[in-house]
Amino acid sequence: MVSQIYSTALQKSLAIATGIFSQHTLRCENWLTLLALITISIKEFERRLVRFSSSIFLVLGAAINFKMASGGSLAFDEYGRPFIIIKDQDQKKRLTGIEAHKSHILAAKSVASIIRTSLGPKGLDKMMVTPDGEVTVTNDGATILKMMDVDHQIAKLLVQLSQSQDDEIGDGTTGVVVLAGALLEKAEELLDKGIHPIRIADGYEMAAKVAYDHLETICEKFPDPRKNLEPFIQTAMTTLGSKIVNRCHRKMAEIAVDAVMAVADMERRDVDFELVKMEGKVGGKLEDTMLIKGVLVDKDMSHPQMPKSVKDAKMAILTCAFEPPKPKTKHKLDVTSVADYKKLREYEKEKFEEMVKQVKDTGANLVICQWGFDDEANHLLLKNELPAVRWVGGPEIELIAIATGGRIVPRFSDLTAEKLGTAGIVRELSFGTTKDRMLVIEECKNTRAVTIFIRGGNKMIIEEAKRSLHDALCVIRNLIKDDRIVYGGGASEISCSIAVSRAADKISTIEQYAMRSFADALESVPLALAENSGLAPINTLAEVKSRQVNENNPRLGIDCLEKGDNDMKVQHVIETLTSKRAQLMLAVQVCKMILKIDDIRADGGGDM
Ligand SMILES: Nc1ncnc2c1ncn2[C@@H]1O[C@H](COP(=O)(O)OP(=O)(O)OP(=O)(O)O)[C@@H](O)[C@H]1O
Ligand SMILES: [Mg+2]
């Protein structure tokens, strides 16, 4: 290739040289001039050749770079047009057509089958161990998939699917993957029948629309939460039912509803999750979890004899040192006698008492200090009856200042009465026999911020409780945004499945098959629920389905807890309409996307 390029370059250079030569010969008068001209022309030719060849080397250099970057190399055809030669083409993995579809579906199915056993109130948990031995036990679909370290590209799409459901809705992250897995499984059967993937994707789209609209017809509206909180608590209980926290099911649901209602803006129908904080502390029981309407700080009063609670607290929030003035190392102070030393001590004490008085004069009865103060100062504070908290971190100081409506005071001399923060009560929480203490600042003037304080036997339980409560908080928020609900336990899926298969009969094109498969795939959710509860899945589903049709009752679902009633309204198994709709739409989108890929190439090591 190089020689080819070089010969082209030589040809071009000769042409240039001839051009220069002929220009000058036109004007030459004698041979001497001609000779001189030839020399000039040759020099010019050399100069241009050097320039031209250096540009060729530039091109070659770029081509080599390109080769290194892309695994291909750049070449030119006889017209100078560049093209790329990809080496080792035979070593690349490539799948096309039906092979590609099958391989994708297999990958997606295996991810869905892992997570399928976690669905429902009797779904099982998964334990994930990180390379450094950290253990996570969870039932949350999004968390399981996120921690699963999936390599396959299509499997990653399913991980992202459950992540989107988590971001959008917060709950239903397992259900959405189970549904997507089932849709792809059914698509495989259709592909085997010889139906084109695009027709399948179209059929799924049509079916999803029917199901989406059908949900609207079977949904119910909730009453205003300001009047009756009970239905909201029931919905939160459905969400928490499948989690480890279901031991104190009702209490957790109440905490979630109270937390959301405390911060909800009912006019705008929105909830700011920034105002809901979750703190956990190992120890105690899950039942000891509580909702604190205020701020929780992992600190205690600086002296054990200081009061454990301060009512009508007025807080001086200091980010400057609050201690007797000390001689710093850069000062030189000669103390030559005991008397001098005593005087110095006396002076320090006097000065600090003056500072304490200054704080008390502003009306403060509690000092929150970012810096520490030594034991001597601590003792003096106790003597002067000014409770104080030391070493409070920067972000916590800010949170306290915002919550109590106080100002952070960076210089002691700036402290005034208007800058104090106020709170109804500041109290210390103590835990069992441990010396751990925390400070609770409640009835704050300025904020609706709440903290859910989770207790549990170990870190794993606390983390899982946080995830579960997050699901419940999201569900309540969704209900405040859109108060329509459908019934769970697979009831809405069965009802949609019936509606879709009815609609399929009316379609005369080939999409009919895809719609029927969609209806079958919807049944995978009740099937999985029954299977995970130890029931005979097909029998149970057949019975419930026939009852739904005969009784025209879309509330009938799988009685997972074997309470003896299939009516999910009676069992209070409630889900939000937004969640079900999001599940449907997200699952269909991913299936369509996967069905549209018919050619994959991966580098030798790539997983396909
Ligand atoms: N008591 C119950 N009886 C019957 N079905 C129930 C009951 N409680 C919950 N379900 C059903 O269980 C399913 C929810 O299970 P689960 O919470 O494990 O998964 P998810 O909500 O899809 O995902 P995740 O909660 O992990 O984000 C829903 O279909 C819901 O209707
Ligand atoms: Mg759930």
TrEMBL record:
Pfam families: Cpn60_TCP1. InterPro entries: Chap_CCT_epsi (IPR012718), Chaperone_TCP-1 (IPR017998), Chaperonin_TCP-1_CS (IPR002194), Cpn60/GroEL/TCP-1 (IPR002423), GroEL-like_apical_dom_sf (IPR027409), GROEL-like_equatorial_sf (IPR027413), TCP-1-like_intermed_sf (IPR027410), TCP-1_chaperonin (IPR053374). GO terms for molecular function: ATP binding; ATP hydrolysis activity; ATP-dependent protein folding chaperone; unfolded protein binding. Gene3D superfamilies: GroEL, GroEL-like equatorial domain, TCP-1-like chaperonin intermediate domain. The keyword Cytoplasm applies. It is found in: Cytoplasm. One of its GO terms (cellular component) is chaperonin-containing T-complex. NCBIfam families: chap_CCT_epsi, thermosome_alpha, thermosome_beta. This is T-complex protein 1 subunit epsilon.
